[in-house]
Amino acid sequence: MKAKGALGIIVAWLVICLVSHFAIQHFTQRPFITLDNFELMMRQAIIVGLGAIGMAYVIMTGGIDLSPGSTIALTTVGVAITIKATNNPALGIAAAVIIGLLAGLVNGLLVAKLKVGPFIVTLASMLIFRGIAKGLAHEQTIGSVPDTWISIFTKALGKTERWQLIPKGAWVWLVLLVFMWFVLNRTVFGRNVVAVGSNEKTARLCGINISNVKIMVYAICGLFAGIAGLMQESRVGIGDPTIAAGEELKMIAAVVIGGGSLLGGEGSIFGAALGTLIMTTIGMGCSQMGIANWIQEIITGVIIVAAVTLDRYRMTRVPKVVEAA
Amino acid sequence: MSMLQVSGIYKSYGQTRALIDVSFQIRPGEVLALAGENGSGKSTMMRILSGEEVPDQGSLTIDDKPYSPRNPIDALRSGVALVHQELALCPHMSVAENIFLGQMGSTGFSPKEAEAKARPILESLGYPDLDPSKEVRELSISLQQVVEIARTQAINADYVLLDEPTSSLTKADIRKLFELVQRLKSQGKAIVYISHFLDEIREIADHIAILRDGQMVHRAPMAEITEAEIIRHMVGREMSELFPRSQRTPGEELLQVENLFGDNAKPSGASFTLHRGEVCGVAGLNGAGRTELLRAIFRLDHVRSGHVTLKSSSPHSIHQSWFGGAGFVSEDRKEEGLALGMTISENLTLPGRKGWLFSSKANDEVADKFAKKLRVKAHSVTQNVSELSGGNQQKVAIARLLHSGCEVLILDEPTRGIDIGSKAEIYELIDQMAKEGKAVLIVSSYLPELLGICDRVAVMSRGNLSEFIPVSQTNQEKLMEMCVQ
Questions:
Q1: Are strands B207-212 and B16-26 parallel, antiparallel or unpaired?
Q2: Is residue A318 in a domain?
Q3: For residue range A272-316, what is the model confidence (pLDDT) as tens digits?
């Protein structure tokens, strides 16, 4: 059943690609499905795609995280400051990982120990992290950051690199995607995450430490926001405390389009990735057809409603009860 | 003649027949007690009277005119109002607003006007000092109940149904409630009173109607029936041959509970010992603290003080309880016992997973072994639990304990709401477990079941656990008597 769900999303994505292809060819006489566009799509999807991995974990437990956008901004500032001070890109990466993990841990500890709803906790931390980012950067962008190899993650591929197919950052995304799929589906911790989301009371009854699981998923979400922040810095080359506002909503949308339920227990890591690709494809298709931004937003909204409705419809049709004999 | 007549009511839920040909009358100026064990059909009858359920067959009339409510609002319009056991008030609104909730029409709302209208109602109930502008959450439980009863009088209901009204009241509050009921009675209202406490029923009711297994087995004026007769009518069935009992020999101590206190004095100082090869049962009414006792032992609920020794360890968390060799089956299969959205295999193997890696294939294989052992009827263990029947779901919940290899099985209402075939299989399994040297602690509302499968039983009453006595030295009547004390 799970595989079938993922298949449905792949089909939806392919349909969107084909529709865009023919529409664009019709109106502009240019093809849409090309290797160049594939590379472009992957490059645009990296940031939301990475964030959506962590978000999928949080949503899997029935939680929500509104702070990744702010964490991304905070990370760009942290990475920019670190590289400016040390000229060492490795330390920049370490800064991204540490900032992301810390931000996630704060969220996780507050949700698990204060027993305050995750919506409220992360709404607050969204403001707090954004504030810290602005404070650290003195309410300015941090420019003239030395150009290091961090920028290669999101650079377009040069002529001699075409064999790599997609940007290096996208490879990082794909590797982490597979790894986090493995963690969710093939480790005891991952199955505990699903159990907590499916029925927290049952998970507790069976001796699973609910607060540890919650702390971990928010830490993971923060970590991936940190990595997304690193990619953001790689792309823009500056530390920008106002960047990525609202990116968390795109991550949530990606998870939901990919079959995730905000009630927890459902969803998949690959689904979240496909959700990201669907949104990116729509964005690219619209802009290459010259469709205004506002129409793009309306289409994305409609897709979210359609995805959830289809999912609900599919769920109500499935159950068949085995009679007691 | 003015009265509410119930004639030949039938009601089934799927295979379960909840009410079979039930008839009785409720007369103005009278208190009718509706008595019966848990599951005898009392609640279903109340739900039908108050319009929350529609009967399959049979008729209701008020003053010889047909009364067929499709919903609670219909019932209120005909003057029939139910006061739920769990109060249904809006805590942040005032007493007056709660009294007139849904009755205020579509025009503007004036707090002053509502309060002025609420005052005479509260006076007529004997509570002239209750301030109608006060927020309901500031009131004690007993005063909240008064507000709920005042609500029935705001619409001038002639028939007031009280479902277990004293279950959370103190002795002094019970006296006040009785005065209120007497007042309503003297105003010519009819009251249907449901309670497990026989002494209360004897004091307040004029008539008694006793339900058993969905049938009306006895009706009598209260003056003409003794307490012993009431109990006999409530229980009165033959012990069937459902219950296998192998030769079991109690061995060493497996579980020792010493002076255990939980929150709200449930349990309040429970002590007992459970041995290998023993099945021990705890009887009691709903709300007496049976479930709380089991949950405190397993550390699912907070423990105030006391000590639990499990084999050689003394667990302080749910996790330690599982690893110490105990397992728990929840009374609430759908909300807590099972994660309905997960597969049989995932549910079955949830406790006690060790190490880091998880192989769903290995997991499915071992789950399949246990599912087969318990004869769970399913296509495969990768099926979602929600697709199984109640009995098969419960078997998965119990299989979980066997998979974890626990030796102390703590079962809270393990046969509630499942078909008779699955029940028999679970009884057989419990017997087999005891024979293999495990210990079983079981709570059940169904006395024949406890007497049938247990070696020793105790009764929980208002938080206090009695001694465990061998089943050969007791019977249903004696146990019921201890329950209602």
A1: unpaired
A2: no
A3: 999 999 999 998 988 888 888 888 889 888 988 888 887 777 666
In a domain, A322, yes or no: no
Give the integer Cα–Cα distance in Å for A296 and B308: 63
Contact A185 B360 (CB under 8 A): yes
**Which amino acid type is present at position B69?**
P
Other Cβ atoms less than 10 A from the Cβ of B107: the count is: 6
B120 within 8 A of B153, measured Cβ to Cβ: no
Asked if residue A37 lies in contact with residue A284, where contact means CB atoms within 8 angstroms, the answer is yes
Those residues whose C-beta lies under 8 Å from the C-beta of residue A100, and which sit 6 or more positions away, are: A71, A75, A222, A223, A224, A225, A226, A227, A229
The contacts of residue B107 (CB under 8 Å, 6+ apart) are: none
Which of left, alpha, beta for A62 (phi over 0: left; psi -120 to 50: alpha)?
Answer: left
Give the whole-angstrom CA distance, residue B174 versus residue B155.
25
If DSSP codes are grouped into helix, strand and coil, which group holds residue A88?
coil
- Three-class SS of residue B97? helix
> For position A37, which CATH number holds?
1.10.3470
Tokens 């998870």 found at: A255
A17 in contact with B, Cβ within 8 Å: no
Whether A207 sits inside 8 A of B354 (CB atoms) is: no
| DSSP letter for each residue of B65-87 | EE---SSHHHHHHTTEEEE-SS-
Amino acid (1-letter code) at residue A86: T
Question: CA torsion, points B428, B434, B439, B440, in degrees to nearest 10?
Answer: 20
A:B CB pairs within 8 Å: 103
Interface membership of A3 toward B (CB under 8 Å): no
What are the backbone angles phi and psi of residue B338, rounded to the nearest 5°?
Answer: -130, 150
In this complex, is the C-beta atom of A185 within 8 Å of any C-beta atom belonging to chain B? Answer: yes
Q: pLDDT by residue (tens digit) across B337-376?
A: 999 989 999 999 998 787 788 888 888 999 999 999 888 8
pLDDT higher than 50, residue A324: no
Q: What's the pTM?
A: 0.78
Chain A contact set for B341 (CB, 8 A): 198-199, 265-266
Assess A323–B contact: CB distance below 8 Å, yes or no.
yes
Q: Which of A294, A34, A201, A88 is nearest to B341 (CA)?
A: A201
β-pair partners for B389: none
Prediction ipTM score: 0.79
Does the N-terminal peptide bond of residue B132 adopt cis geometry, omega within 30 degrees of 0? no
Element (H, E) at B415: none
- Interface with B, mutate which of A205, A315, A320 (most B CBs under 10 A): A205
CB–CB contact B421 A208 (8 Å):
no
Q: Is A292 an interface residue toward B (CB < 8 Å)?
A: no
Coil, helix or strand at residue B40: coil
Query: Is the torsion defined by CA of B404, B407, B412, B414 positive or negative?
Result: positive
A2, part of any domain: no
Where in chain A does DSSP place strands (E)? none
pLDDT, tens digit (0-9, with 9 covering 90-100), for A134-167: 999 999 999 888 888 888 898 888 888 888 888 9
Distance of CA B269 to the CA centre of its chain: 23
Is the separation of the CB atoms in A63 and A260 below 8 Å? no
Residue B470 in tokens = 């061998």
Structural domain harbouring A285: 20-312
d(CA B443, CA A119): 39
- Measured between alpha carbons, how far is A44 from A278 in angstroms, rounded to an integer? 12
In a domain, A51, yes or no: yes
Using CA atoms, how far apart are residues B209 and B9, in angstroms rounded to an integer? 15
**Structurally, how many domains does chain A consist of?**
1
> What does DSSP assign to residue B156?
T
